[in-house]
Amino acid sequence: MLTEEELLQRCLKNDKWALEQLYKLYAPKMFGICLRYAKNRMEAEDILQEGFIKVFNNLHCFRNKGSFEGWMRRTVVNTAINHYKKNLRHAREMDIEEVEVENNNELKILDKISTDELMAMIQQLPEGYKVVFNLNVIEGYTHKMIGQMLGISENTSKSQLLRAKRLLKDKIKNYKIDGSE
Amino acid sequence: MDQNSFEHKIQKKFEGYQPNPPAHVWHNILSDLEQQRKDRTLAGKLQRNRTLIVTVAAGIAAAGLLLFYLFNNSNTSHKNNTFPENTRITEDSSDKKPSDPENHQNHITTDTKTVFDSKDSSNRTDSKPGGENSPVDTVKKKNERKEQNPGGLPLDRNTYLREKSGGLLTFLNPCSLQDIISPAQIPIHRRLSFPDDNRIAETQKKHISRKSSNLNRWSFGLYATPEMLMTKTPAAGTHSNYSADFAAIYSINEFFIQSGISYLSGNSDRNIEIDYLKYDFLGAYEDVYEVTFDSTENGVEPTYHTKTVEVYDTLQKQTSSRFENDYRYLNLPVLIGYGRQITPSLSLSVKSGPIISLMLKDSRKIGFNQPNTDITSMAAPEPMAKTNWQILFSAGIEYRVSSTIHFALEPRIKYYFDPVYNLDNTINRKKPYSIGVRTGVVVDF
Lengths: 181, 445
Description:
The complex is a heterodimer. Chain A is mainly α. Chain A contains 9 helices and no strands. Chain A has helices at 4-12, 16-37, 41-57, 68-87, 104-112, 115-123, 127-138, 143-150, 154-180. The longest helix of chain A is centred in the last third of the chain and has 27 residues, at 154-180. In chain B, helix 4 packs antiparallel against helix 11 (197-215). An 8-stranded antiparallel barrel of chain B has the order 1-2-3-4-5-7-8-9. Chain B is of the alpha+beta class. Classes of the chains: A mainly alpha, B alpha+beta. Chains A and B meet through helix 2, helix 3, helix 4, helix 5 and helix 6 of A and helix 1, helix 2, strand 3 and strand 6 of B.
């Protein structure tokens, strides 16, 4: 059994078997990330493909200073952001004048929803909202960092997150209604 | 963060979420990596070293030009020096005077023999002494000819050949004789050992001078080229380009070097899918953002500062819309070619070389123009590349309408070293090619 470092060394020598092993090891996790940023499964596959090609082409840049999975995850997220930027043409600056009020009902419903169903709801979010939501809520980036990554203001990032959450909660509420019918 | 918060629950949902990607993704990755490896080996090397390649190609062309020029000059000079006025190069009669008729006769005899020996060499093996083409017969013919000459003067070679050809060869000089008789068949010292040296030397000088000026010449051309750019990226589609070219051509013998300037105008026009948010106006209200208090005679009075806030309902929609991309480039080619005349009026040529394109303008116009909407995503390609290197291969035909003007028709293919768009991902970095037909008029100087 090869260690991760040995596997990477073999990948650096362009060993196809090693590349495939590395792909098999991380592809499911990365595909999960891609799905969250994509509109649909096909787009997620494109992002995954681009992301892995970037990873394989830049393996020599990984210095074993941190976790390889973390490095790969950042590469894939950056690929997804590039994908989003490529499609982005207009972004509306919005003031934050809304205060989010959490409703316990939504949280209860959320417990009952499967991950695939939640994924489908996130995928349906508008592009800008979805990216900010993923970066902030799942990846844990601050609004300042998100603003720098996406080329938007911190306030825009905050307002897009609020709108994303509101839309998502609406979808969750609707899910309950649909489910009860 | 509150452990029961919405965000936390979402995070928990995605912990350990590992869906399996379809198998074809790995195959696509492998084939893409393989393609990249191939690109790196050949085109990649070309692309990375394109500046070096262009420099080397230009250097070779310049060196070739210089060498040819030097060689041509020295050759012309050598030929001229070989025939100073009043000088003859002869094999066996350098001590004899040019005006001596016998000497002329001897020369003609020798030369005529050479001519017949050379031209009829295949027959000569079968000839017998006293046969039709035997040296004896040749001498007899020579004597008959001498008798037919009313002035009793010996015939020079030109006169002889003119008669021999039945008047077809109305003008002959040593060079045209070389055209009739292969130079390999006649040693140079014999070819040049004719009487009337001054006239021949002058003729030859003129001929060499004329030939030299014809070989090295400048031409200028004006062309128009419609072409199709195949991007190989489905989203980018096919582009139509039109270019107007001015070219300067320097010909050296049958080779030529061509450069110039070309103005290219192109466009692509297609439908793209657009996702957008539609804001339906629901109403507006005045929002108080500040209250100030002023002291008046009636006491303190508040002033409310408000701003109008419009309220919209948002709907996610999708539509198909027209997308136009107009661009202008300045092209600078350096081409090296080879041309060959097939008939007096037709010639064929091939040429190849690098072209650099510099963007002058790129305008992108979306037909989507609905009020109160925001585009959230659009399947439109990135802006065009600012610069682009290409390599051109062309085969052409030229029809000469006068001694200096000819029309050209050149089918051509250009391979792009870079993608035509500024795509920052690896999947769509397809390098396009274009196919076009260049037509124009060329003037020789």
